[in-house]
């Protein structure tokens, strides 16, 4: 699942036809509890789930799955060049690093020629709106061009959550400058069947503004 809208890889085929995933080496970045890797393994792929959070990978280990879990920084991947056929990330890694090009260049390095990277992030336009699912979330409250990171701190003043805003143009330039060819940019529309609310995502907002951006990139 690429985002809260419910865009399903079975239908979207952004990584390619499901029947062609069998035997492919796939790297999942910012895997969390490795939900995507678990699905990929079910298609016969050989995924590796990577996350910088040991605690998240403990959840993945508890749920289980026939694939390796790797605790590492996405900006310093512990893999040899040309180790993977595909790479994917659903709201993982890239929104949380100050220099996404460092991550993208590392992913390009470990992909084989012709390899594909697909990643989803919060749609950049959503940064201009309050993170509310109701009518109060439909009025612009901040500058789309303000790239100040969103930071949450603990009582001692230490950052415990940081998310970085990049405009749509920033994201495209990051992809191209890192040596990828952008072949598609998917902005999922809110489907009629999805009545869920999650954070700032809701049918009300989803019918008016995009919530997710999915970048489909190729390493030529």
Strand content: 25-35%
Helix proportion of residues, in percent? 10-25%
Q: How would you state the average pLDDT, rounded?
A: 96
Structural class: alpha/beta
Shape descriptor: globular
Order of helices and strands: HEHEHEEHEEEHEHE
Q: Which regions are unreliable across 5 or more consecutive residues at pLDDT < 50? A: none
Report the total helices.
6
Radius of gyration, in Å, reads 17 Å
Q: How many beta-strand runs?
A: 9
Distance between the termini: 26 Å
**Major sheet summary line:** 7 strands, mixed
Strand order of the largest sheet: 3-2-1-4-5-9-8
Notes on the protein architecture:
This protein is α/β, with parallel strands linked by helices. Helix content is about 20%, strand content about 25%. The strands form two sheets. It has a seven-stranded mixed beta sheet, sandwiched between helices. It has a two-stranded antiparallel ribbon with strand order 6-7. Strand 2, helix 3 and strand 3 form a beta-alpha-beta unit. It is globular and about 45 Å long. The two termini are about 25 Å apart.
